[in-house]
Structures are given as C-alpha cells and as structure tokens.
Amino acid sequence: MIVVEHLTKRFGEYLAVNDVSFQVGQGETLVLLGTSGCGKTTTLKMINRLIEPSSGTISVNSTDVGQQPGPALRRGIGYVIQDGGLFPHYTIADAIATVPKLIGWTPEQIQERTTELMAKLQLPENLLNRYPAQLSGGQRQRVGLARALAARPPVVLMDEPFGALDPFTRRHVRRELFGLNELRETTVVLVTHDVAEALELADRIALMDAGKIVQMGKPDELVHNPATEFVRDFLDL
Amino acid sequence: MLDFIRQNADKLLQQTLTHIGLTFVSLLLALLIGLPLGILIARRKRLASGVLGVAGVLQTVPSVALLGFLIPLMGIGVGPALVALFLYALLPIIRNTFVGITEVNPTVREAARGVGMTNGQILTKVELPLALPVIFAGVRTATVINVGVATLAAYVAAGGLGEFIFSGIALSNTNMILAGAVPAALLAIGFDFGLARLQKLSGRKMRAGALVFVLLVPVLSAFVLIPGSQDRLVAGFAHEFYGRSDGYPGLQKTYGLHLRPRLIDQNLMYEAIRSGQVDIISGYSTDGRIRAFDLVVLQDNRHAFPPYDAALVVRQTTLNRYPDLGPTLNLLASKLTDSVMTALNYQADYLHQSPRTIAEIFLKQMGLYKLPTPGERSETVVLGSKIFTEQYILAEIFRQLIEGKTQLRVASRTGLGGTQICQDALRTGSIDFYPEYTGTGLLVVLQPSASVLNTLPMQPDSVFAFVRQQYKEKYDLAWQQPLGFNNSYCLMMRRQQADKLGIRTISDLVQYLDAQ
C-alpha cells in the first residue's frame, strides 16, 4: 500500500510535480498516464527515491520512504524500465539473481526462484547463460520483469515497460505478464503514455498534466465521465 | 647482427628482463594511482578537466627533459626512470578510466540504482566491468609507450635495452644499436598484440584475462628487482667509454680489470660519483669537475690509454680558400697546457661561468683578444664541437679569436654527439673544423689494424705524426699544431675513498678488487 501526500518536485524554477496526492491499495495496479513531461515519471521515481522530493511525503506499507537509506529501500521495491534495463554484461541468470544476491539469498534459494520465474514467464531454460543482446525485445522485457519480481517485492514500479516493443509484441507480452498470479498480488505503479495500455492494465488511472493529477479513477469512470476537456481529448473520446 | 646477439646473449637477456621490469613496475604504479584518480574524476566531473590537463601536460614533456628534471631530485638509477615512466603511463590510464565510466549508458546506471545497488556496488558490479574494454585500451597504450620510453632508462644508469642503443650510437656500431632497438620494438609489438588479443575476448573471458594480466604485472615487475651481483666498488662508465677499444676493453686487456659497470650518460657520471652512487667513473683527465668534486685520477701505470693531444682538424679546402685562417688557428699552439685547460673547465663546471666569458678572459690574458672590426662579413666558416664542456670552451675561444683577427664570420655547430658524427660532418662539409684528440682520431676514426698499432709507439709525437699523415692522405683533412694539453681517458675516484683504500694507480685498483 502506497500513500503519497502533497508531493512536489522542483528542478530549479521548473515545477515538475505540483502537489500530487494519491493512494494505491494492496494488490492494486495504478497507471500514471500523461504526455511526455507531465511529471508522471518524476512522480514514480520519487516513490523509490531515485529522485528526492522537494516537499511532501510518501509511505510504502506504512513506512516513510524518506526514513530509509535509498539502496535498502529500492531492494524491497521492484523496478522495471524500458527494454528491461538489463546490464549488458550480466547473463540472464545473473540478471534474475541481482536483487536476491544483494539481499543475501543462498545459491539454492536463488536457483529455485530462477527456475520458477523462467517457467512462469515462459522463458526457455537455455537462455540462462545468454546475454541480453542475444535475446529478442519481448524476451528482454520478460527478463526485466523477472529481475524485478525475483525477491518477491510487495511493490513494483514500472516506467514505460513496454515502450521499446512493437505494437503487436507489446500487446502480447503485457497480456501474458499481467495474467500472472504473482503480479496480481503485487501493488504496481505503472507509467505510460499509451491510452490503450492504461485502459487495459489499470485498476485505476491517474491522468496527469503539467505536474498535476487532472483526473483519477477507474478506467470506466474516465471514459464515461471525463472531468475536463483535456481528459476527453487525451483519451480520444 | 646475429653474431653480435649470439656473443652478447646473456647481456641481452638481462637487459630485456630489466626493460620488462621497468615497464611493468611503472605500469603498476600508474594503475594504482591512475585508476582511482580516473574513478574520482568520473564521479566529480568538476575535477576532470584539471586532472586530465595536468596529466596531459606531463605527457608532452620530452622524455629526456623529464629525466633531466628528475636527476637533481632523485639521483641516478632505477628511481628517476621509474618516475618518468610512471608519469607517461598516467594519462592514458586516467583518461580511459574516466571515459570508460562516463560512457556507461545512463539507463544501465539508473537500472543499477533502481534495483538497490549502493554507489560502491554500481561501480564494481556495473561501471567498471562495462568500462573495462576502454580502460584496457588505455593500459595497452601505456604499455607500448613505456616499452619505448624505457629505452631512455639507460641514460640514467637504470639499464634496459637502451644500453645497447646508447652505446651503439656513441660508437657508431649499427649492430649494437639494432641489438637494442629490435628487441625493444619486438617487445612493444608483442605486448600490444597480446593485450589486443585479451581485449578481443568477450565478457567473462576478458575479465578473467584482465585479472590474470593484473596479477601478472607484479611478477613482470619483479624483473627490475633482480639484484645484479655487486662489485666491491661500483663503477659508472659512459656508454662510449664502455664500448671503445681504447676505453674499458683496453683496460681489461692491459690490466685484467673486471667490473660490472653501470652505464650512464657521461654528463651525469660526475654527479653520481659525487653523491656516492658509484665509486669509480670514466672521464677525461682535464675535466674541471675533477677539481670541483675533489676527485683523483688513477695513474695509468701501464699506459692502457693512448695519448689524447688536442688539436684542431680542419678541411684542407677551407684552409686553401681562407689563407689567414691557418695562422690564426695556430696562434694558440701549445698555449693550452693541461693545467690551463683544467682551470678553464673548472670555471665552467664549478663556477658556472659561460664559455663566452671564460674564452674572453683567457684570450685577454694571452694578449690575443681583439674586438671584431665592424662591417659586413660575407664569408662564413663553420665550427663544430662535441657535447662536453671542454669542447664548448674551445669552440668559443676559437670563434672569438677568428672573428677578432680575421674578416670571417664564424657559425657554431656545438653539441655534435660523438666522434663519428663530427667526422662525418667534417667530411661532408657541414662543418669546417673542430677540436679533436689524437688518440680518438687514431682509434675511432682511422682504426688501423692490430699490426700497425703494435708497431706504432704510443707516444704523443708519434701518434700525432701518424694521425696527421693518415688524415691528410685519406680524407684531405689537416691537423693543426697540438694545443698543448693531453685530455686522455682516465679512471677517477673520490679522493677521500681512494686515499682510505690506498688506491693510486689502476694496478692498485685491480689488486683491491681481486682481493675480495
């Protein structure tokens, strides 16, 4: 469960995020939707403290994120970025083991979890010793997700996770991934500018513009009751 | 050349090992300093331009000049050579570490932060492994640079393949030069090739290879520390003296002297003996530093060194063209005795007076000084000199003498780096005359057969007569009257030590060394 209150971020004179508040419930998927530069990615990165807020508070599972050291906090929060964000010099096995190793799992535990995730994400075992460059885009994205889920974090943040895929693969992969039980139990905040993706994946959508949330609600509510002309326009209704 | 290598195989091996050792000790130091520095400036970019600027400036200092700066600070030997090599290796390593790290994809770096790596973990697990190929390219550059620059270590008695190169140049011995240059080039190519192969390996293999290389560096470095066996007294000889038949080989033959000399630039020998880094040096008997540094010349009681009477060697065509030149030059015949010349050298070496001032004062004392008459001087003669104090002073004396007494203009080509170079310059007409020594003319230029040498009495007059006649015949060059001093090769020691050990002659020295 994530609680964001009066979150503001300034870059010098520029107000990137302007007094944003929202909550994400246990197991819920919230999509931050909006145009480039609307502040959605900045908001996301403040949740795991990749960016420090100028003011406001964020708590994850009732703990103020500002009270924890950044690296320790981030190990407990899954993070997925465009094209997986994989390290070019890590094999797929290394990639999935990244966080478990950082938090000191035994090799047996890691081995077991890796096998489990590979099966769930429909990745063939023979990929384990390959490098990211040897995989397809869809495979890389799945490995990126496997890395984020490896240590079973209660919260996963995703920043345009399917942005690098072609429309066909994108639809295919996201259906597959969001069909996973494992992800259904996890609290997810996902950033995208793709309306169809938002409508398909979100439990709730927060549509942002110029650093503010313009409207927040279930996909149906946005579609049927757009709060402003901008919402109507953006959703192309 | 193969013959030469076969005869000097053990020496070549030792020099090669020293060379490798010098290269890798300095590389190791540069890695130890350069890597952290590169990482630091990749983190604090504000420092980058400053650090890279300083390292870049160090890189542009000519290597000989850098050694020149280091000698007063560190003396001779391995120390200054290592520091110079270290400074040259620094820039490629710092720069490539910096570039390698800063060029890591920002997305990858953010992903590393995003999964919860600390800054240290990001560095060791992500940035350094990804920067490794670039860093490695820097190490490769540094290695090749160092193999090349390490040849100059011979200049400061640090050994290495430069010993053959320097000696070869001093002696105009092409085989000797090649025996040093070819292995040095092969080393550079070999290391470059090996490191390039390592660089081409992908991912894990390359990291393993790089690790092996890093572990190997200290092992290779150890070569420089292999202790050479020590004599009771340490000798430091100039490259030329070490190789010339009338130098060290002559001593070996006449006295049975056997040393393991360190080879060093002739101008640095004196500093080395003064500071006690060596105990015996080769030198010239009229050198001003003998007096300045309180050295004593060991008596050549068995006449191993032939006479070295100084005189000008002039092109006959030049003498014919300017009839007043010859008589002018001979105004100083027999005027410059041993003691006069030593005193003049002393004024330069110890009192640091300029050759110009010394020459002027001397000519005034002789009553030969005359201000040049003003007016256009259309005719020029070119005066050469070798690269040591005495020759600079002689050149200046004759320049002032000629310009005072004749209407000729004198152009100076001072600092010609060896007998063979002077001889070639003279024969091709690049210079018209220069001061030479009879013994040198005999043994370095004429190089008569052993049978001729055996019949020739090693007396000043006979050697002079022989050299004059041979030069005239073979090269159309004219020896003028001897100037009066005999600047022969000699061995010298610190007076204090020589007195303490009771060594006065070279025979005493041999006896002392053999007694061990």
**Percentage of residues in DSSP E strands of chain A:** 25-35%
Helical stretch count of chain B? 25
Shape of chain A: globular
Q: Strand sequence of the main sheet of chain B, in spatial order?
A: 2-1-3-10-4
Radius of gyration of chain A: 18 Å
Chain pair sharing the greatest interface: A-B, 25 and 17 residues
Instruction: Look at the structure and give the CATH class of the largest domain in chain B.
Output: Mainly Alpha
State the CATH topology of the largest domain in chain B.
MetI-like fold
Distance N to C terminus of chain A = 32 Å
Give the overall shape of chain B, derived from the CA principal axes: elongated
Strand line-up in the sheet with most strands of chain A = 6-7-8-3-9-10
Task: Summarize the topology.
The complex is a heterodimer of chains A (237) and B (516).
Chain A: E1 2-11, E2 14-24, E3 29-34, H1 40-47, E4 55-60, E5 63-64, H2 70-75, E6 77-81, H3 92-102, H4 107-120, H5 137-149, E7 155-159, H6 167-178, H7 181-184, E8 187-192, H8 195-201, E9 204-209, E10 212-217, H9 219-224, H10 229-234
Parallel strand pairs in A: 3-8, 3-9, 6-7, 7-8
Antiparallel strand pairs in A: 1-2, 1-4, 4-5, 9-10
Chain B: H1 2-7, H2 9-43, H3 45-60, H4 63-74, H5 78-102, H6 106-114, H7 119-149, H8 162-171, H9 174-200, H10 203-221, E1 235-238, H11 239-243, H12 248-255, E2 262-264, H13 266-274, E3 280-284, H14 288-292, E4 295-297, E5 310-315, H15 316-321, H16 325-329, H17 338-349, H18 355-366, E6 380-386, H19 389-405, E7 409-416, H20 419-428, E8 433-437, H21 438-446, H22 450-455, H23 460-475, E9 477-479, E10 489-494, H24 495-501, H25 506-514
Helix pairs in contact in B: 2-3, 2-5, 2-7, 2-9, 2-10, 3-5, 4-5, 5-7, 6-7, 7-9, 8-9, 18-19, 21-23
